[in-house]
Amino acid sequence: MSASRTVHICVVGDEGVGKTSLITAAATETFPDHPPPVLPPAKLPADTTPEGVPVVITDTSSRPEDKQALELACQEASVIVLCFSADRPGTLRRVSSYWMPELRRLGVHVPVMLVGCKSDVRQPNSDRGLHEAVLPIVKAYPQIETCMECSAKKLQFVGEVFYYALKAVVHPMAPLYEPESQTLRPLCAKALKRIFLLCDKDKDGVLNDAELNAFQVLCFNAPLQTEELVGVKQVVAERIEQGIVNNGLSLPGFLFLHALFIERGRLETTWAVLRRFGYDNSLQLSDEVLSRVNFDHAPDQVVELTAAGRAFFRDVFERCDVDDDGVLSVREQEELFSTAPADPWASLEYEGLLAETSRKGLLSLNGFLAKWAATTAADPRRTLAYAYYLGLPDDAAADKLFAVSRPRRQERRADAPRRGLLQCYLFVPANMDATPVMEGLIAQSRPAHGSLAGPIRAAAAAVGGGDGAPTLILRSFSEEQAQVLLEGAAGAEELQRCDVAAFLFDAKQPASFQAACEHLERVATASGDQLPCLLLQANDSEASPALAERIGEACSELAIKPPTCFGLRPAAAVYQAIVQTAQQPELAIPETPSLKAARRHRQMLRRGVLYAGAGTTLALAGYFGWKLWKEHRMDAESGGSGSGSSRGGSVAGSKTGAVVVGQHDRSVLTLP
């Protein structure tokens, strides 16, 4: 956890169980004979706590009039210290009958410390009975991490109560270990496996002495002494089969060591390792790690994998394709993601994403790369996280795996580089199925592919051959989905992410063409008349002459190309046309009524500017003409009234020469 985060310890329990006395004894090392009903919150600075974090301890009252304050304190708590009285069995029974259900009702899901106060007055020889009473409660509520007894009167274990409460927050057990089965939890085992593989520099499956020492220095800033190294190996060899292989620590041995640390209460050791490799308390990579790469971009830009990024994921695939058959079997895919929290495409937003697979539905290399391209466009932080999970070293230059495209306006210049990932929104009228178009994108390179269990919402594949071939992501929108998109507050921004819009219609259903045209006009207008569009015509051989005439008229009016046609299933040329339209958008912007109106408005503005400019020019010319005429008249009047003037002009002598002034042309000559 962050060192600056304050840990809030909330002490709760029935009235009279000893909550206030416990806090007072821990803080002052004295037992209060007459404690107050409730203490004010006690604040401990970070430099006074063993874990170096600030702590606030909140006492609570069980009186009905204080219920609201109690609930608020519980909801703000980082950990709950739930007290019962060791000499009052009824207070222990209320732990399961009232307190734990109440915490659940309040939505409190933090660690709970179960503390038996007043152990000094407990009946002798009652240890067994107390243990038998507590054990079912602990099993029923996994939130309870620790159970212990204390005596405020005798100052026994009062400090330990708050020490373990603090540890339960800073070094929680729940994410790491299952006490009942005495095993590491799956997320913990996955994280430790990733760490093991990163530290296995020679990739021989074991950590040799040099690798173990490097790991020790990295995590704890100190190497292992020779006798310590021998002792660790001896313990592992005695306790677990195949824990030591070729005098090196194997993965099972590495996992066993951490389970042993946890069993012995040394959770801080395992947490130090996990945090050194970037994990937070939920055993996901922390925001600090994922903020190393800046993914900020405008809606009309896209984050895509660079050549280095594609090479990284290609290497991951080939490393896990053990049988070298070009696809990932179920076991190989499980092994590939065995160092990650989960399959990245198991979540709802990726369930409908179709990519290239084998006949048996096994993911191919092309499909694997296409899925990562689609994931990067939708959620680049997820791709970054999985790059780390799948073996990207912690000190690698992760930003080299990604690139942010230029804004679309800059890309449309003739000499500008183009993005390698294109997104096409496919709008489908009622009574038509987009599945053939989606599957066709995959089938352009390999006819055989698996099918998804649910509906296909999107498809991703490279179009064309070679490493530089663009990846096309095709997303389908039904009429209802299109309505939501166009009427939603974020509709215009969402359309900026789209590189090209395609509108499907069936030549056998003339009404579908009308629907496609209406969709095209609405989508183009909503995009600000900036989105290139094309029509896709299915069953082209079934088009009637009347429909063909309507199609020609509509395309002429909209100033777009004729529809791209196909029969039952689209061929590769359909997807090449989509890519070409995205890459040459200026030829596919529809002449919608809104665009024509905007153009007329701009023309009127230009005419107004021209007229205004001409008027201004004439006004300025008139003004300067009048000014020159006025100056001429004034000079003429002053010349006629001067001494020695004559009709033909005058000559004034001087030592240096004479100036001759022409009365009519106002020219000035200097005579030597």
From TrEMBL:
Keyword Repeat among UniProt keywords: yes
Gene Ontology BP term (one): mitochondrion organization
Pfam families documented for this protein: EF_assoc_1, EF_assoc_2, Ras
Compartment list: Mitochondrion outer membrane
EC identifiers of the protein: 3.6.5.-
Gene3D superfamilies in alphabetical order: EF-hand, P-loop containing nucleotide triphosphate hydrolases
Major place of residence: mitochondrion
Domain (Miro) ranges: 4-171
Bilayer disposition of the protein: Single-pass type IV membrane protein
TM regions (residue ranges): 608-626
Family recorded in the similarity comment: Belongs to the mitochondrial Rho GTPase family.
Protein name: Mitochondrial Rho GTPase
Biological source species: Chlorella vulgaris (Green alga)
Lineage per the UniProt record: Eukaryota, Viridiplantae, Chlorophyta, core chlorophytes, Trebouxiophyceae
